[in-house]
Write a structure and sequence with these properties.
The chain contains 4 helices and 49 strands. It is mostly beta strands.
Amino acid sequence: MRFVAALVLVVVCADAFAQDVDYPLAPIYGNREIDKLPKSKYAESLWGGSSWYWNDDDEPEEPVVGLHLKPSFRVGPEGMERLCVVEAATPGTHRQSAWLRFRAAGGDAWASRRRATWLGPKRQYRACWLPVLAEPIEVALTWGNWNDAVATAQASTADGAPEGLFEVDVSDEPVYVDHGYGLMPAWCVMAHAGQTVRVRFAAGVSHSGPVMVTARLVGDQDEPISLHEWSYTPASLESAAAAAIGIVGRPVRRTSAFERTVATDGLKPGTYTLRLTAALPNGQELSDDRTLLVVEPGRPPGFGAHYTDLRYADEVYVSREERRSWDGLWEGSNLRDVVVTFPGSRDRFVFWRGTSYVPCWAFNNSWLTYEWLESEPDYAGAVGCVEPIMDKGCKHSRVRIVSATDARVIIHWRYALTDFEQKIIRDEWADEYYCFYPDAVGTRKLVAWIKSGWHENQEFIALNRPGNAPHVSVEPQAVTFLATDGRAQRPVWPRPLFSVDGWPHIIAQVNIPGQASPFMVVDDGDVDVKVWSDPYVDKPGLFNTYIHWPVSRGIRTTWLDDPADWHRPTHSNLVNVVNRSMGQGTDHEIWAWLIGVSSRERDTRTHAACWLSPGAVTLTGGQFVGYDKSQRAYVIDADAGIGSMTLTVRPDGAAIVNPAFLIRNANSRLSRADCPGASRVATGRENGDRDFVVWVEGNFPDGLTLQLN
């Protein structure tokens, strides 16, 4: 079925659009199983009917519970903790009174319980961090009575646990993109001189005597700078949670956390090594080196875009084992990276050579992309996947700043669809235009120069720092689906269940720990929503993860099944939201999405509602062309010779929030803008100074009036 939005398509750049014509949509399904699924069936509600997503084992006749261990550990509130996945099902009716009880299998000194309102008749899975104990942990399913278990299981969290574990971080760590680095390895920390570095350690449960922890700070020539030594004894403690619910028993040996700080006062900018050691009671010594990058504070960036050179702070894998330096790989190249910054925000939007210029929200603990255009793998002579991330050296991938003013930034990314051998397949290309405003909300517009056959153009993908597992980068409740009418679905990995069938539109928001949430809005509900979530408990982490991108070269599309590979840069795919195009030509199709970051779901809904229902404009001194969703802007053609313009925006069911206006052919006749009730008004000139752009900060439920002169 062909779809053309009731929308005026406005040229941002000369090559952005071609004339619309009527021709059939290309088939969207390919030969992979996920591409053959009907709409939203891979994202089926727990209380919906059964489908291929379930098998007979998913619907047990009796209550069941299981505990699955993951090879991930952290220094947490209860000492050394292990990532676990609880599996449970309660046949019959939904039980709001269901609880999960955790306790040491050999005694009740350590115990905890959690309400399990998510339980239902089909097997579900929930991630949790449990303490590493000397004895196995028992998980029990109860109906509210602490001692009345309807199903139990147990596992030893100490199996395979490390002898000890260090963690190092800096509170309010500087944004490393601002200091010239791309995806920073987790073993590198950055600090301004004077900031303190926090060192945490937890010994394994086999060690009950004193532990001597040492932190040595040395320079790049191994010259000693400072020495810190601390002693602590891992304790055998009763759980406060157990005591609170009246459980009394013998102490259970577990780890306890140790925390101290290292000062950086007086350090000059440069690279240092923090050498950490722990002398254990049995005579064993553990060591762990961290790189400390001390940088000048600098000035907080405002709104804009700039070219820069972002380095990679480690060597690059060019095969499964061989590595080369970042500088050596890019020697002689004149390619630059592009960074978009926002006022008063730590959020950065980055086009980096290490991602083949795939644009990403670049947060310190992880990056997030909306994906790119790709076509059928191993088809039409292709070797492997066909997508721009195969172009590791950016042979065909290019990025440029089209415009950067106080009002908005426009970035153009052009790339070819290449295979593993860097061949361009079927001469297919894509042009993407990213238009951002100072509120960190903008648009992604894709012009796809494609032939027939399967293509994909949207997928939330998290980029994981080397040394970090994906569950450090993304919350288990990874993607929230919203609608402006208040509806919400909150699927949880490793087996996300939800349904958005019948929704009028889709708002998808990714939940990254400690960061604002990147979001995307699709302007219709007739979409294919598919999640990547299998196998559920066999993989090392909670998410599907791959090692061939970003940064790394010479590796075919490869699933991560060995947790040791977390030392590489990796990526984890989460969700596809595949919608129909908004316009077509004889050799191309066009898509547009609203994108941005937001700290609150309410703000995300507000931005979406205004974009979906922008209202109407009346004015003097020009002609209202229409609201262009691909720019998030009201487009106006100025009358010849005008020296002023007054326009009014009337809402249509949604408040007007932070609107933007593009006045074409204004030349230099318009240079100022005023809007009563606005917090701020920013202006800029584009297209050789012929066009005047205005961005207004404010929430206008009753509409607004803008005076230009």
